[in-house]
Every structure is written in C-alpha cells, then in structure tokens.
Specification:
Two copies of one chain form a homodimer. Helices cover about 45% and strands about 15% of the residues of chain A. Chain A has 13 helices and eleven strands. In chain A, strand 7, helix 7 and strand 8 form a beta-alpha-beta unit. In chain A, helix 1 crosses helix 11, helix 3 crosses helix 5 and helix 6 packs across helix 7. Chain A starts with a strand and ends with a helix.
Amino acid sequence: MKIIIDAMGGDNAPHEIVKGAVDGLKSCKAEVVLVGRQDVIEQELAKYPDHDKSRITVVNATEVIDNNESPVFALRRKKDSSIVKALALVKGNDDAALISAGSTGALFAGGLLLCGRLKGIDRPALATTLPAKKGPTLLLDSGANVDSDVEHLVGFAVLGKAYMKTVFGIEDPTIGLINNGAEEKKGNNLTKAAHQALKNDPNLNFVGNVEPRYSYDNQADVLVCDGFAGNAILKTSEGIGMYIMGSLKDEIKSSKLAMLGALFMKKALKSLKNRFNYDYYGGAPLLGVDANIIKIHGSSKSSAVVYAMIQADKMMEGKVLSAIKQNVNEMAPQAEADQ
Amino acid sequence: MKIIIDAMGGDNAPHEIVKGAVDGLKSCKAEVVLVGRQDVIEQELAKYPDHDKSRITVVNATEVIDNNESPVFALRRKKDSSIVKALALVKGNDDAALISAGSTGALFAGGLLLCGRLKGIDRPALATTLPAKKGPTLLLDSGANVDSDVEHLVGFAVLGKAYMKTVFGIEDPTIGLINNGAEEKKGNNLTKAAHQALKNDPNLNFVGNVEPRYSYDNQADVLVCDGFAGNAILKTSEGIGMYIMGSLKDEIKSSKLAMLGALFMKKALKSLKNRFNYDYYGGAPLLGVDANIIKIHGSSKSSAVVYAMIQADKMMEGKVLSAIKQNVNEMAPQAEADQ
C-alpha cells in the first residue's frame, strides 16, 4: 500500500506537508511517496534525521499548479507538475491513495481527466465528514459541483452510502436530503424532485429531508445536496465555530476572574476544541473517480496530513475503490447501461 | 404609531407573545394592538395587572392559520384569522408594523396577496440581521424564495440597501454576493450572472463575492443570496451555535474543576451567549411588500417580542416603508416602467 502525498500543494507546503508525512509514518502501515521538487523535499526530510527512511521515497516533479490557473489548461500544460505525476500513481489502484492540499479545481479536473469517472456515476463529488454529535456524518457534495441536478444528487447518495459502509462499517447507511424544511412538499425545484427520486430508489435507505440546522444531529449517515449548498453549510460551520471560539477567548481575556476560571477549565476547553476538529476524520475524498483521492484543506498543518494518512490506510485496507465500484454497479444498472 | 401583534402565532402563543407585548411597552413609544381570540388574550393580560392599559387594545379574531395549511387557501378561507385581520391594519401604513411568530408561508403569502408588492420589486424577501463581529449584517433572502433568479438577487440588494440605510443609518451600504469563492469567475450559474448584474448597477455599492465562511466578518453590510442558500447559512449558524454551547456545557459538567472554573467565568459566558443572540437586532422584516411586517422565530419567547417591538418602533420612526419605496423608485426605474 502506498500513500502518495502532493508535497507542494497548500498554503503551508512543503514544510507542514513533509512534517505530516514523517509524523504519519507511525500511525499508518502504508509506504509514503512524496511528489514534488526533489531538492526541496529532501531538504525538508533532512530536518527529521530519525525518520524511517525505508518507508519514504521521493518522486521528482518540477512544476506546481496554483489556485489562479485554469485547471484544465494547467493540467495539459504542466505535465511535470506534482499533481499530474501523483494522479498517474493512483489511477485505478486499490492499493494507492493520493493526499493533496492543493487547488480543489485542479484535483477535481485532474481526477476526472487523468483517472476517469466510475461507470454509472455522472459527477464525482467531494465528501466531507462532519463531526456530528453522535459520530461521523458524510456531507456531499461539499463544493465540487455548484450546479447539480436530480440525477447527480442520487449519484451522491450512492457514493456516500458505499463510502460510509466501507470506511465506517455502517451496514445500511441512512440517506438524508438537505432541505429548507422537513416536510416532503417543501423545498426548491431541485430538492422537491430529488426527494421523490431518492424515495423511489429501492437501493437507498432514504429517511427524508434534513434541515441544515440539524446537519450535526445524526438524522442520517449521509447528507446529500448540491455543491453550492454543501459548501455554504460546511464553510458557515467552520466560520461560526472560529467566531465563537474567538469570542470566548476575548471574553476570557477581558477579566482576571474569567482568566482564572479558564485555567480551571483548560482541559474542558481543549476537549471542546478537539470535538470540533474537522480534520479528525481525515480529508474530503473525491468520490466517483477511478482512484483514491483525498483533498485536505489548503491551510492544512501537519496534523491534518496525519489524519488523512490514517484515513488513506483505512480506505486501502477496506478496498474502498473496488467496493464503491461494486456498489455503484449493483445500484445503478440503468445508468451503467446508458453509458 | 401602532405595533400590531399576532397574539396567536408561534409555538409559545399566546402566553409568551402577550407577556412580550406587555414587557415591550416600556421600551417603545408605539401603542400596541393584540390580534387574536379576545377571551384568551384578556385572560393573559389579566396576569399583568400593572401594565399600561391605555396603550394596549385587543382586536378579536377567532381563527388561526397553522403551519400545515396551504397558505393561499387558508388566507382566503379564514377571513377571521389573526393574520388576515392584522395584515389589514398594516397595509400601506408607515405608522403601523406587524409582528408575527406564526407560519412564514402564510405571512409571506398574506403580505403579497393582502398588502401587495412594491412597484419595481419582483419578489419580497425575508431579511435577517446577523450578529456579525463588528456590527449588524443583513442577509437576504433568508428563506422566502428558495428558487431565485438574477433579477431577484438584484432586487434583494436594492431592498437591503434601503433597509440598512434607514434602520441602521449607514450612508451607502456595501453589497456582497454570497458565493463559494471570492473570485469573480467562481460560482454557480446564478451567482456568476448575478455578480455581473450587481457590478454593473451604478446605484449599488457592490464589493464582490463573500464566502459563507466570512458571513460574520463584515465584508459587506448587505449579503444577498437565493433563499435556499440563505436559509442554509442562517440555520447552520444557529444549529452549530447551539451545538457548541451545548458541548461547552457538557464539558463543564464532566469535571468538578471545570465547574468551578465556569463559576468564575459566569459573566464571560453570559456575555458570549448574548453576543450570539439573533433576537437582539429584532426579527426578520419581509421587505418588498407594501407594509411593515416583521417575522419572528416560531419558538420566540417574550424577549424576542420585545426586541422586535424596538425594531418596529425604529422602522416606523424612520418611515422605512416610504424610504424603501422611494429608494426602489429611484433605483429601479426600468423595473417600474415594466409593470
């Protein structure tokens, strides 16, 4: 098993990415392949003389695709970019997984163009695991498809089901549809039609609409929505979380008594912070392409890399890619026949 | 000036609504008219023998429209409902404002059917004031129009500008477009087109796209989006806020030391809670209809009624309705000519 890491992607690359790769060796079984500028990566690796050198190799890639480039154009032009080289290593391979903190657009376009879609799936989706109250909830699409139609949403449900079953061992994952009201007749044009399609699919354990207010209430194991709404839910959550924690800090700092209180509450506050650590369940897998691809936050630090490595290990051990292919084939015979 | 209160609407009606009306008398100048079942309201009022009876009157209405009814049908059939009678009292009136915790659908449909749209505005919008970091930010539409087009979004900007100018005294309110990316070329079909329309409108102080993560960062005074996304942002905020505060409570309860710490932090924690009190800026005005209508949360307690009364006072004193009409006329001559 090999974890391929895009060493050049993200705001804190290569330092935090390489540090994470080294730290993560202790928590996972796979070997690690760092892709990027060899000289730069080796300089970083030299900072950790005690790491297990037998399990880390470097693949040289001289170019980098940044956020401001047109992904499709850049993928064609920059053949020696870390992302192009990394994708070649994971294509169609159950025993390899790519982790990247680089441009979402390039990763999405690259996954599609260089690895290919799975048969029966119209649109790959980014899936984010929310740290919900009683355990993980998968939200997809969380930002890759900002214009989605009914068939896409059903496809997201199929992918989400297969992922939750394989990675978290949930026998028959429940599916919820993100909507502005719980009632069946509520919604916009998309969700009203999607509700019926999900309800009528005999392969899906559909439990109905879920209001964004209850995204973290485990009303369903998988929450499907278009990428615009998914992005809004995810990013609002992160923004408000930071706002509340920041305000709590301000309030504590504003009084000596409160500062003393916070000292007594140190463990409780730390535990609270950990509870809302989105990195804990790993990064966002790009489901529906013929490769194990995990997108981590552009601002990822080394710990996010480590969590994603644990997730990659699990995905490979569970043969997620094959399992998803099998599930999709079983569940979407019509769509497959249409190809 | 008269504040008309739907005494029968909401989960805690009539008790909390009538209590709020009585409490609110001290904080506002207007007279109060309670609309609903006279016997029930008078029973509630009798609980507060010391209230200023000269400033509260009751208008009898024997019927109630509930959340499960088709709004349009119910409005036509239930002529003696509190909402129908209340809307008649505020129609086209700068010196009257309606507060209701009842069904959003009935209020929206009633506002449209019984009070009428403002000339030049295609779709009225619910506007919610977010307790952002450095002061109020208006988010609209926050749930009334779940399918919106480009013209609707521009209309929301016009309405939001007029409201922020009149109620919060902001000279030339800045307008932001909620989007999944800050870059101009990013977005779904709706936001990409809306970006251009907002940018090209010489009457709008458009500052570009605002990502949901920064909804509370005062990047713009007015944030426009379709009602589905607006609902997602608002409800996710509320849900996550409750989740974090609930988790903090759990963490505190889990250790004696933390409980002691929390005692020292009592004031800071209370201040934190107040900072995220969505009721503080009042309810959500339904902008774009020919009446002052304020929707408060279905679960509103008396304090939410008081805050909405203060807001209603401000709206009447500032002649918001006339001001919005004037602003809309100045800004949308083309739309008006099209009517």
